[in-house]
Predict the 3D structure of the following.
Amino acid sequence: MTPLLHLRDVTAFYGPVQALFGVTLNLAEGEVLALMGRNGMGKTTTIATVLRLLAHSGGEVRFAGVDLHAMPSHRVARLGIGLVPEGRRCFGPLSVAENLTVAARPGPWDMARICALFPRLQDRMAQPAKTLSGGEQQMLAIGRALMTNPRLLVLDEATEGLAPIVRQEIWAGVRHLRAAGQSILVVDKSLAELAAIADRAVILERGATVWSGNFADLTPQIANRYLGV
Ligand code: ATP
């Protein structure tokens, strides 16, 4: 079956500096795939090539069978990829409700479902996004991406900088999404949390895929070698 997302031997540069040296990954429809690796190994850059925020120079990037090589980023979003970027980036002056509605596209995800997923947002609908806590902003960023009714949700640093209790709320939301059959590509630092939520993992080292497989096969030796844990 054609994977929903397929990257093969992807290379990419920031100007003259090569950042990706051969990223290969496949994500099936309905799957949760963890993209892992130490700091600076190319996770965010890989996501940038998928969203066409950065063009790849070699290899192949396909979404639902469509070659993304020449596609501008606004068209990729319309193909059905919803990004929750590192650092969240909500529209600060806009209210929670406005942040959600500007993103809305037809589909099963609407404001009511997002409030059921993250009840904290319900009470803050009229509040400017910039006045939310970090965890609430992350919930809003996920909600906003879901409002586009994406076929693939991409979560970059899903719980970075959040208090443990808030992280658990985010992971509970992701678990719900997974149970609802949402395809997700997720980056996070916490191996234990990813192992509990993801079907499979891909590990990057210096801009290249060095390991991929089921979490059951991710031995402490592999985790130690590539993730330093
Ligand atoms: P982190 O976990 O720290 O976010 P990462 O795995 O997401 O790391 P990237 O941010 O993709 O890693 O960085 C991969 C490499 O590309 C690093 O060497 C980084 O310094 C470099 N890089 C990232 N962004 C740029 C940029 N805008 N210009 C030049 N080099 C960059």
In short: The beta strands are 5-14, 17-27, 32-36, 56-63, 66-67, 81-84, 152-155, 183-186, 200-205, 208-214.
